[in-house]
Amino acid sequence: MYGIGSRSNRMLLTIQLALIALAALALSTGLVCVALFIDAVFSGDSALSGRYAIWIVVAFAVFAAADWPSEVISQNVGKEYILRIHELLANRAVELPLGFFDADRTGQLGVTATTGAVFAANAPGMMLRPIMHGATVAVVTSSYLLFIDWRIGLITLAVSIVAVISQRKLFAEYKAAEQIKAQHDQRTASQVLEFAQVQPVLRAAGSNSIGERSVRATMREQLLVLTRTQKAGQGVLARMNTILAFGVITIYAVTTTLLIAGQLTPGLFIGVIVLVFILAKLAAATIPFGEGLQLAHNTFEELRSVLDADLLPEPEAPATPADFSIEFDRVTFGYQTDDPVVRDVSFTVPSGTTTALVGPSGSGKSTLMKLAARFYDVDDGSVRIGGEDVRALGTRNVLDSIAIVFQDVYLFEDTLYENIRLGHRDASREAVLRAAEAAGVAEFAEALPQGFETIISEGGANLSGGQKQRVSIARALLKDAPVVLLDEATSSLDVTNEHHILTGLRQLAGNATTLVIAHRLHTIRDADQIVVLNPNGEVEAVGTHEELIVTNERYRGFWGERTDSSDWRISRESRSQRDL
Ligand SMILES: Nc1ncnc2c1ncn2[C@@H]1O[C@H](COP(=O)(O)OP(=O)(O)OP(=O)(O)O)[C@@H](O)[C@H]1O
To answer: Does the Cβ of 69 fall within 6 Å of ligand 1?
Structure first.
């Protein structure tokens, strides 16, 4: 994955690796010359010690000449990693099926694109460089020692190889702990975000509510995982330091034995002791970098999993729908294999009519909407628009013919005008303003400081929920699509918002084929047909309000609950209608 950059970046990375190798070779030569210099000084050979002194100066000069540019190059290679990771993620994001972007995946993409990309950018310079340096210097210096004294060389080489292998093995263990931590980080982040968003509800429920307890439990678990990961990291460092310490003691023991046996000169003995001491220091300094390098590897792996994620198959010659009816034909689908959330669902929304979906929470209403928009492909059966399977129409065709108004409206940091124009990029100014008028956006735009040119903050934080939904309806009206998928707001709206949204939605449904997850009484009553789902994700009944209220127990209960809890809303609704 280090080769994700452009050709020139890959070449730079190769040059960097070559420079690291050269710097490591020069440093090893310098260090061995220090040992030989000490030996020469002890033996009183001034000519030889002079020659070694020159070698030492040359070796360290080469080291500096190779090391500095390798650092500069590594920074450039790292910068391109950030750009490339963002480019690859962005390119892939527009190809992936919309169903890919659930909360966990979106969190994971966010982490990969931010902290992950920074770790990857730091990998060549701050981590790869010192690690390669440490490992190369250890192995090259030991090889040199083989020529000076094969026994010392052999034992130093053995210790170096054991240290390099142990480092790889131990950091693989740490990687597993870090991956678990990353998953928990994502889960905690999304839960805390959700916790902040639902504060009004939680505060109304009082302290120690289910939401509060579940966030506390997640945080406690997060703390445990963090402690476990830190322990794993510290354990790796401690074990690596122990391996190094044993290695150094073994080399010292062999060297001392050779000295006592008279097989090593005192000068060389001191030289080797100094050399091994410096080597051990160098090796110990590289160990913590393994942790960072592992995190960079995790980023590359996550990137790989996004790049390798399955795309939906697209037809070579997309079919054309005969009309804009929507047909679910024995549809079965689950997010996990062998765990369907909708089962054997069959019903048809005739072209130009409105069908309301009702059913308990989790019965699969949103899932059916997403299948109609081809966020996912069905496991069994078929979803057809105008008689053609959505797989034969192709995702582009399907999305072009659909306007979606879901509850979670996202607004971009741009003007109010541009946020509406997103519904149809080529629309004229008149068309945008017409849609804004029809959805009741014009009414609140007048009160904003720069009207339609007011910048909406990221996510639409400076608009109310009802206003955001009006923008979303304006977008959909502007798109003027023949099929409308609508998830009505569950939260209560004030009279003004309710009135504008109701008017906008009526206009939106107009002559379009509309599939709506209905929460509001008027939508259910006005629908041409209602599909009742049971908790198993099966169709329990299909009919009009008048039919179902007589024939279906579940629907009667559902309607009863709504009217009981909405008595005050119905009277308010009728009052606001009267006022018009
Ligand atoms: N992206 C997903 N990954 C895994 N499971 C999911 C996903 N989305 C929904 N589910 C599960 O599928 C089932 C049906 O969910 P769905 O949102 O379609 O129901 P719903 O009837 O719209 O519920 P609600 O009225 O509460 O919005 C639920 O058990 C839900 O937990």
So the answer is: no
